[in-house]
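In this section we walk through a basic example: taking a raw amino acid sequence and producing a predicted 3D structure, encoded as C-alpha cells. The instruction is simple. Fold the sequence below.
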Amino acid sequence: MGENPAKNHYAQLNQGEENEMEIFGYKTQGCRRALCVAGYILSCGALRLLFYWKPEWDVWINCIRCSLEEADIVLLRTTDDFRTYSRKTVTWISVSAFIKSRSDYPDSEEDSIFSKAIMKPSLLVKTIQVQKIRYVWNDYTKQFQKVGVLEDHYTCSAVHDKFGSGLTCNEQNVRRVICGPNTIDVPVIPIWKLLIKEVLNPFYVFQLFSVCLWFAEDYMEYAIAIIFMSLLSIFLTVYDLRKQSIKLHKLVESHNSIMVTVCRNKEGFQELESHYLVPGDLLILKEGKTLLPCDAILVSGQCTVNESMLTGESIPVTKIHLPQADNLKPWRVYCAEDYRKHVLFCGTEVIQTKADDRGVVKAVVLQTGFNTAKGDLVRSILYPKPMNFKLYRDAMWFLMCLIAFAAIGMIYTVCVFALNGGLYKEETGEVVKKALDVITIAVPPALPAALTTGIIYSQQRLKKKGIFCISPQRINVCGQLNLVCFDKTGTLTEDGLDLWGLLPSERNCFQNIHSFPADHGLPWGPVFKALAVCHSLIVWEGKIQGDPLDVKMFEATNWVIDDSSRHRNEDQGSTHNTVVRPGLQATTAPVEGITILHQFPFSSALQRMSVIAQEIGGDTQAFTKGAPETVAMLCRAETVPSNFESKLLLYTAQGFRVIGLACKSLQAGKPPAALTREEVESDLTFLGLLIMENRLKRETKPVLEELSAARIRTVMVTGDNIQTAITVAKNAGMIAPTHRVILVEANEGPGSFSASITWKSLEENKIEDYRGLEDDNQTEPGIRLALGSGQYHFAMSGKSYQTVAHHFRHLLPKLLLNGTVFARMSPSQKSSLVEEFQKLDYFVGMCGDGANDCGALKVAHAGISLSEQEASVASPFTSRTPSIACVPELIREGRAALVTSFCMFKYMALYSIIQYLGVLLLYWQLNSFGNYQFLFQDLAITTVIGVTMSFTRAYPKLVPYRPPSQLISPPLLLSVVLNILFSLSMQIFGFVVVQEQPWYSQTDIHSACLSVNNHERNSSSSLGLHGVRDGAHEQTDNGFKSYENTTVWLLSTINCLIVALVFSKGKPFRQPIYTNYVFILVLIGQLGICLFLMFADIDGLYSKMDLVCTPTTWRISMVGMLAVTLAVSFLVEEAVIENRPLWLLLKKTFQYHSKSHYKRLQHLLEQDPAWPPLNETFFSDSVAVTVEGNMRGHSNPTFDSNEDSL
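The resulting C-alpha cell sequence is shown next.
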C-alpha cells in the first residue's frame, strides 16, 4: 500500500530544506486497533516486530486516513531516494495557566506563530516532535510549523522595535511552554534500550531463528558458538554506541545550564538559567568570557567571538550589531550573506564585548535548543544522512538471489524427502526442519559482520596515519573518487602569508615599491595608518590574535595594540575601544596613537572590510581593505592609477596575493556607530596595493601530480583573486605548462533580466607577441587544434559562476567539464559547485581547512577537513596533519576497502553455495553433513578467513583507474558463476565417482578399510561401558557417515580455502596477498588440518567428525580433483576476470559507452569543433532562473555514481 497525496491529508515539512519530509494525517480506529492486538497475541509478537521494522504498515492497518487538522497520528516520509517512513503521535499542550484574559494573548501582532498556534477557546497547542525539533499546528495556514526560532519575516527595524525592550514575563512563559526548554539534551541511552534495539535488528532475529532451528536439530555446539559470537558482536556494538552517547552527552551538557541575564519589558534585568530562554528574549552580554547557550542577533554593541566550534578556525571573529534599516525586506534578506556578522551562534565563546553609547551589549534570542547552530551539528550526528552507494544496493540484490537459491533448495528438499518418505519413514517435522535448514546454509549469517570487519580495519589503518573518520561507510565511497576540489589558502598554500611589498599610490600614480623586509621602516602617512588600523585584531591571552594576513600586516608597522583600558571619546562617551600605539621599534610618528572607533568586519560576499578610526586628539577617518578590484570600484576614479589593471595583473600572474587599500576623511558630528557601511565605503581615496607572498606547501605539487597520474581530476575552489589562483594552479601542477587557460566572464545586465558570457584566452597576448601582425584567420586553426584535444582549462569567478547558473544553465555542465579554477567563491557557491559536479556523476572529494568550506565538506561524497576543531564533526574525515597528503592516502585506503568488500561478498557467497550444494547432494541420499562437520566449516574455516582476509593493506601506488563500484557487474558475476560451476562439477564428480569404486558399499561403511573395522570391534569388546556409548553414537551417526559424505565434505571444505585464496585480490588496489602474513599462515594451517583429516586414520577423530576411512588412492584422487579446481579457478580469475585489456576490448567490440553524464558530455564536446567559442560573447535575454532554485543546489541525499543510468 502506498501514499496517494490528498487534499488536507498531505503536506510538506521543512520545504526546500535539507531535512525535507512529507507528512500524512491519520486517525486511530478502535476496532482496527483491537484486531491488531489480537494479531500480536496470535502471532506470538511476530506481527508487532514486523510493525516495528515497518512503521508505515502499522499506521496503514491501525488507522484511517484523515486531514492533518484532525490527525492524532502522523506518518512522515523522507523525500530522498530511500523514502524512509517514521510514525509520530500528536500531543497537546495547554497554555490556559498563563492566559486568563484577552490581554494575556502573546504578541499583539497577528503574524506571530505563537498567537496562531493557540486554539481558541480551548487554549491548546497541537504539536509533534520530529528529530528533536518541535512543530506546532498553525491554525491559520493549516500546517505544522517549526517553533524555537524567531520568524524570518521580521525586518531589521522590527527586530529592534518589537524585541529591543525584551519580552514581558507572561509572553516569556507562554513561549517557554510552546517551544520547550532551551537545551540540547542528548541523554545517555540506557544499556537495556540499546540492547533491545540491537537485538531487534533483522539480522539478529534471523540469527535467533537459525539458533532455534539448530537446537531443534541437536547442532548444539554450533548454535552455542553462534550465540557466543552474536552476543559478543551485540555487546561490542552496544559498548560502542554507549561510548558515543556519553561522548555526545558531554559535548553538549555544558551549554544546558549557564546563568544568563535577560531584560524583561517593564521589569528590568533578571538573572535566570539558560534553559528558560525563548526566541525573542533580550540577552545582556557582560564583559568577560561567555559561552553562548543559544543563537542570538546582536542589536547593540560589538563582540569578538571564538567560533572554532563552528568553523574550525580559531581566529577571533568580530560581530557587529544589526543595523536599524527602515525597509520592508526581512532582516536575513536585507543582510544577504553577511547576516552571520550579526549573529552569535550557540556553543561559541564571546571573548570580548564592546558597548556602544547605549551602555550595554544586547542580543535578541534567535533560535533555541536543537534549532541552533550547535543543535544542528548535534542532530547531524544523531540522524546522519543515509548513503545510497551502489555497493550497498547491490548487496540487497545479492542477498535476494541467495534467498531465491534457498527457496529452490527448500522445494528440492521437501520433494526428495516426500518421494522417499515411505521408504525411510522420515517424520514430517524432520523434513520441515531440514528444509528450513537450507535457508541458514544458503544465506550466510556472518556476511554483515564480515563486511564490517573490513571497514573497521581500514578505519584503524587511517587512524594510525592521522586521518579520523566519523562515517566508516564512506571509506568505501572514497575508493570511487574521481574529482577532488581543494581550497587554496591553508590547504594548497601555507597558512601564513609573508609581506613581499607595498605599492603606494599618490595623485593617481603608483610610487616606488617598498619591499619587505626593509632596512628602513614605512614612512608615516595614510598608507601606514591603513596598515595600523584596518584589521580586526585583538589581544587575547597576552597575544595578538586574528586573521594571519592582518597579523603580518600589523606587525610590519612595529606598533602595538593597547587593549587594557577604556578610552574616552568626545562623540560617544566612555566605550571600550581598541587603541594602537607606536611600539619600541616603531619609526617616529606625530601621534600618540589611533583609536579604532567602529568596524565593518570582513565579508566574503563583499570581499572587503572597513574601520572608522581617529587619531588621539585628531580627525576621524575611514580605512578600507579588500580585493583590489572591489576596493578600486569604491574609490573616486581620479585617485585610481590608470595602469591599475596592468599592475594588478603583473603581481597576481606571479602568484602573489594582492590587497587593495583606501581611505577617506569623515565629517565630525555624526557618531561612527550611526554611519552605514554604504556611507563609509563610498568616494574613497585609493592608497595602494599590499603584495603578499603565499607559498605552496612542500607536499602540494607531489600530491597533485600523484592524483593527476591516477586520472583523478583536481579543481581549485578559492576566495582569492582569479589571477593569483591561476598562477598557483600552474605552479602546483593542476594546469600543465602546455595547456591553455580560458577565462570565462559572465555579467548580468541592468535589472538582472539579461546577461552576457565571454570566453577569453589568457595567453592571447603572448600569441600576438609571437605571431606579430599575422592575420587572425591563420592563427584560428592552430587555436582550434590545441583546444580540440581537450588541453584547456576554464577559470571563472564566483560572480561569473552565479551568473552562468542563473542565465546560462545549459552551458554550466560544459564549463564544469573543463573548469579547473573557481576564484572569489563564497561558501554557498562552493557547496553549490560540489553539488553541480555530483549532478554530472562525478564522485567528489572536498579538501579544505574547515573555515569557509563546512558546507562543501558536508555535501561532498568525501569531505576531508584539515582542522581538528569541533566543527569537523560535520566533515566525514578529519586529518590531524594540515596536509593534502591525506587525500591520496584516503583514496588508496578507500580503493582497498572497496576491493576487500567485493572479495568478502564473493567469498561469503561461494562458501554458502559450496556448503549448500554439498548438503543438497547428500539430501539426495537422505544424508547430510554432521554436527562437527558444519562446525568445522563455519567456525574453523569461514569465521577465521572472514576476520583475516581484510588484513591486506592498500597498494602504495594509485593506478589510473578505479575499482568497480557495483557487485552486479559482468566480471564479478562471471567470477561467481564460474566458481559455482567449478565447485558443483567437482562435488558431483566426487559424489558419482566414489559410488563407482570397487570398495564402495552403501550399507557397510567399513568395507574400504577392513583393518579399521576389525580394530573398532576389538576396542568395543575390550571397553564395556565405552563400547555401549560408541554403539549408541554409531546408531545416531548412521544418517551422516557414508563414503559420499566423507568425499563431499572434504572436497567442499578444501574448496572453501581455494576460493578464499583465489578471491583475495592483490595488485593493483591492494598489496600482494603474500604480504598478509596472518591470512597466509591461517590458510596454510587450515589446509594442514584438512589434509590431516583426509589422511589420518584416527578412529576417535573420524567418529567425532562423522568421517569414514577410504583407501589412500581415493584420498590422492581427491587431492588431484582439488588441485585441478585450484588451477582452473586461478587461471580463469587471472586470465579472464582480472584481465582489464580483455574487458576493454569487449567494451569496444560491443560498442559499450559509459552512462556517466560527464563521460557522455566529454564524448559530445570532442566531436564539436565550435567548442569552446574563443573570443566570442553570448547574450541571454531570457528571464533569469531564480537564485533559490540553483544556488541552494540539491541536498545530495544520495551517494551514487549513476554509472548505469542517466
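Looking at the output, two observations stand out. Residues 886-923 form the longest helix (38 residues). The chain has a mean pLDDT of 79. In the next section we compare this with other chains.
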